[in-house]
Amino acid sequence: MATAVATKRQFSISLKILLVSLCFSLPIVVLAYFVVDNIDQNSRIAELEASGDAYQTPLEALLRDTMEHQRLVHHCPEGVDCKSLLAGLELNVTNSLDALKRVDQQYGTQLEFTPDGLAKRKRQLATVENLEESWGKVTAAVSTATTPLPEDIDAKYDDVNTVINTMITHLGDTSTLILDPELDTYYTMDITLLALPQNQNRIEHIIADARTAYSHETFTVDDRMTLAADAALLQTSDIDRVTGDVQTALNENKNEYHDAVASFQKKVPLLSKEWSEANAKLVALTKELSTAEKPPVSFDAYTEVAVKARESAFKFWEGVTPENDNLFKLRVDSYTKHRNVALLWSAVALLFSCFIAFLVTRSMIRPLNKLTLTLKPGATLLAGSVKQIGEASKQGVQDAVTTSIICEELTAHADDMRETAQNLEVLVFGRIVNPD
Hints:
This protein is mostly helical. The protein has helices spanning 2-8, 13-74, 82-107, 115-120, 128-143, 153-174, 183-214, 221-251, 262-290, 299-395, 400-429.
C-alpha cells in the first residue's frame, strides 16, 4: 500500500501554481535587466566622454606651451627676457607631461591608448613616451642651437605637434566624444575637440606664414596670397563655425535630461565673444597685410595680436570644457534616476504579481483542502455501508431497521458527494456545469 501511494506522489497544486507564477514573473526580471543594462550603457558613454575631456586637458596645456616655445625660439620680441620665458615654458611642459602620465594611467586603457588600440588605428606613435622623446629632441636642439637655427628645428617641433594632435584625435574617437548623442554636448564637443585645436594650430601656422613674409623686404605675391588664405580660413572655418556651434548648443541646452543650465547659458557666450573678438582682430590685421607690399605694422605688433587670439582659444577651451563635463554629469545623474525608477517599478510589478499569485493560490487551495477532507470520511462511510450490506446479504438477514439506517447514511453521503461535486465545478469552471 505504501508503494502505491509513493508511485502516485506528485507536486502539490499550490507548488504547481507557484511554478506557473514564477514562469510569468521571469519576463519581468529579464525585461528589467535589459532596461537597466541599456540605461547603464548610456551612462557609461557619458562617463567615458568625461574621461576624454580629462585626457585632453594636459594635451591642451602641452600644445599651448610648445607652440609658444617655438615662437620665442624663432623670434624674441624686443625688450623681452626670452631666456627666462623659455625656461619657464620647458618647466611647464615637464609638469604637463607628468600630468599626462597620470591621466594615461587612469584612463589610458579604457581610451585604448594601448599598443593594440593604437596599432588598430595606425597611431602607434601617439604615446606619452614618444611625445616625451620628441620633446627631448627639441630641447636638446634648442640648447645647443646657434644663430641661425638648425634647418630641421621646425621639423622637430612638428613631430611634437603631430603626436599631440594625433592623441587628441584618438581620445575623441575612443571616448565616443565624436559620437555624442545630445545636441548641446555634441556642439560643445565640436568646439573643444575639433574647432578650438584647429584654431590653435591655424594661428601658429599664421604666425609662421607672417614670419616668412616679414623676412622679405617687401611682401611677395605668394606672401599676400598666403596671408589672404589664412584670413579667409580663420573667418570661415573657425570663427563662423564656432559661432554656429555656440548658438546651437545654447538653443539645445534644455533637453530630456535637464533644464537649461544657468552657468552654461552665462559662461559659454562670454567666452565665445572674447575669443571671436580676438580672432576677428587677427583676421582684420591679416587681411590688411595681404593687401600691402610694405607691412603697416611691425612683426612684434602683429604677433602680439596673433598670440592674444591664440591665448583666447586656450582660455575658451579651459572655460567651456568644465561646462561640458557638468552636462555629462547631469546626464549621468538622470540615467541613474531612470535606472532606479526602472528597478523600483520592476520590483513593485514582481511583488504585485507574487501577491496576486498568492491570493489566487490561497483561494483555490483552501476550498480544495475542505473538499478533500469532506471526500475522505465519505469514502470511509461508503466502504463501511457497502461492507454491512454485503455481510447482511451473505447471512440472508433482512433487518429492515439496519437496512433503513444504511440507506439513510448512503443518502446523506450522496448529498455530500453531490455538494462536493458542485463545489468542484464552481472551483474549476467558475459555475455549476451539471445542475441537478
